[in-house]
Design goal:
The chain is α/β, with parallel strands linked by helices. It is built from eleven helices and 29 strands. Strand 11 and strand 12 form a beta hairpin. Bound molecules: ligand FHN. This is alpha-L-fucosidase.
Length: 586
């Protein structure tokens, strides 16, 4: 990663304390190749699974203000409740998490199979959960607890072998007069964001990176426009911990080491790019009274497998209360995940993404070696007929085992792929893992979507890739049980839907879309060289479906294609889509 001259200067100033420009011969070219970056991140790619912690003085009241449950996540209560600084700061006087014990907390993460921990050192409220150099608005000086939580957790992680890192809200700060985001407290005497960065962000982050032991991760959040100098000065701080990994949320020109997805799992991971999904175990990031929206253990374990099967990491968040512990619902889930990881952890740690486009019964992760590959088949839906088809797998299979008991499994290889004979009952109702050793370079035939013998091509909702804006969950598959599934909640005009398929019988096709909408809606369909402007007239309701002919499309030759549907932002109205069918034009 190439550091600019300005950032070299800023680094030098930080390290030497001098602001004198570096002499020409002192400004070494600092570049990092993709391979060097991958090597630096090797532990992160091996780890796959980490604990996120949102903890602050908002935890004292569980996001409630004057008895009012505020909308949004609890750590946003100061903003949602428009709580004046003078009033919000008083929560610090009640922050006394006497039940907190760093060793116990870290052991809970470790026993869950988590390999790294990222905690909010300073969130948007500006309160420091460490002994800040900037002032006394921190856990040591302003609370009856009086202990440096970051220092205790850093030590415990070091002793128990977990990597440790900080979340730091570098732009939003609702306490400092130069921070972004506080537009409700009229007592603030505004200063520039440069002043905020120079007098608070730089000193605090420098302190976190030099006084808390080895720091492996710096997790920026909610970037805002700042001066180029501010960005460079903040960015340069990472050189204080040479191996540190940063995310893509410092600013749009700072991609960092990995992309971040929030609360939802992408249909497919970014290509050739490290990425991580962060997600609260319940509904709120910070502890929120009444937040019962805990994801089931099944959902959490399947999320972990799903993310790993796409090549990503999972950063699962817990929310300590004002007493310094997490709720029993979270403790129970973490223990159950840990029980699963004790048996199946090798199917997650150090794996890479699936070679299969889609598996009806579950997911696949893999480890490639010089002479072959180990496939880890994560079976969510145990086949009733006792036979598991691994579609398109062409390599000779050497052996297959259930990870639960290492009993060898029978298998045979056919034109359609490899079929593994399974016992009647799944060893794990959530996710039973089968390891399959294959020899040679992995060879998987694309068994994706293609035409039937009459040339028709059926593109179902459940076979679509749905691309949302990061963080949004607009446009998602709705499982309708007995009824056909559909893509719904398609409110996001930027969300697109696409299918990959193979054309073996070229020609001209009529496109028929089966959809339901409350208002007329326009969209654009692209496939190959063709672009079609489609219109769907209202069907009267989201439950009334009609098959709309939306145009014709030409595939002059056989091959692999993608058909994409994108809302026409000028005339879009959300619609529910069950399927698109391409029928050969007579
Ligand atoms: O505003 C924050 C939010 O409070 C939380 O910290 C999440 C975690 O990724 N990040 C921001 C929302 O994207």
């Amino acid at each position: 990663m190439k550091l600019s001259f300005a950032s070299l200067l800023a680094t030098a100033a930080l390290v030497t304390g001098s602001t004198a420009p570096l002499a020409a011969e002192e400004t070494p070219e600092v570049t990092e190749t993709k391979q060097q970056q991958h090597d630096r991140m090797e532990w992160w790619h091996e780890a796959k699974f980490g604990m996120f912690i949102h903890w602050g003085i908002y935890s004292v009241v569980g996001g409630e203000y004057k008895g009012q449950k505020l909308p949004n996540s609890a750590e946003w209560m100061m903003c949602r409740g428009k709580v004046p600084i003078a009033e919000y700061s008083k929560y610090a006087e009640q922050f006394n998490p006497t039940k907190f014990d760093a060793d116990t907390f870290v052991k809970m993460a470790k026993d869950a199979g988590m390999k790294y921990m990222v905690i909010t050192a300073k969130h948007h409220d500006g309160f420091a959960m460490f002994d800040s150099v900037w002032g006394d608005y921190d856990v040591v000086d302003a609370t009856p607890f009086g202990r440096d939580i970051m220092k205790e957790l850093s030590r415990a992680c070091n002793e128990q072998g977990l990597r440790f890192g900080f979340y730091y809200s570098q732009a939003q700060d609702w306490h400092h007069p130069g921070g972004f985001g506080n537009n409700w407290d009229k007592t603030i005497k505004r200063v520039s964001s440069d002043i905020y960065v120079n007098e608070k962000v730089i000193p605090e982050v420098k302190q976190l990176l030099t006084e808390y032991g080895p720091i492996s991760i710096l997790w920026w959040d909610t970037p805002r426009d700042m001066s180029a100098e501010a960005f460079e000065n903040i960015y340069s701080l990472k050189s204080l911990q040479p191996g540190i990994i940063t995310n893509d949320r410092l600013g749009k020109d700072y991609p960092g080491d990995h992309k971040t997805f929030e609360r939802h799992i992408p249909d497919r991971g970014p290509v050739d790019q490290a990425w991580e999904v962060c997600m609260p175990i319940s509904g709120s990031w910070g502890y929120k009274k009444g937040d019962e929206d805990f994801k089931s253990t099944s959902k959490l374990i399947r999320n972990l497998a799903d993310i790993a099967s796409k090549g990503g990491n999972y950063l699962l968040n817990v929310s300590p209360t004002g007493e310094g512990v997490v709720l029993p619902q979270a403790v129970e889930r973490l223990k159950e995940i840990g029980d699963w990881m004790k048996i199946n952890g090798d199917s997650i740690y150090g794996t890479t993404g699936s070679p299969f486009k889609k598996l009806d019964w579950g997911r696949c992760t893999k480890k490639e070696y010089a002479k072959g590959t180990t496939l880890y088949l994560h079976v969510f839906d145990w086949p009733e007929n006792g036979e598991l088809l691994v579609p398109g797998l062409k390599n000779p299979v050497k052996q297959a085992y259930l990870m639960a008991d290492w009993k060898p499994l029978e298998f045979r290889q056919e034109e359609s792929g490899t079929i593994i004979s399974l016992p009647t009952d799944a060893p794990d109702p959530i996710n039973s893992v089968i390891t399959v050793q294959v020899s040679g370079t992995l060879e998987v035939e694309d068994t994706g979507l293609t035409q039937d013998k009459d040339g028709n091509l059926l593109l179902l909702a459940e076979d679509a890739y749905i691309h949302n804006n990061e963080g949004s969950t607009d446009a998602k598959l709705q499982d309708r049980g007995e009824e056909p599934d559909n893509i719904g909640y398609w409110n996001d005009k930027e969300a697109t839907v696409e299918w990959d398929f193979k054309i073996t019988q070229p020609g001209t096709f009529n496109i028929i879309a089966e959809l339901a909408s409350e208002a007329d809606s326009r969209f654009v369909i692209t496939a190959g060289e063709s672009t079609i402007n489609g219109t769907a007239l209202s069907t009267g309701s989201y439950g009334t479906y009609r098959k709309h002919p939306v145009g014709t499309i030409e595939f002059p030759s056989a091959g692999d294609f993608t058909l994409k549907i994108k809302p026409d932002s000028k005339a879009w109205s959300p619609l529910n889509l069950r399927r698109v069918t391409l029928v050969p034009a007579k």
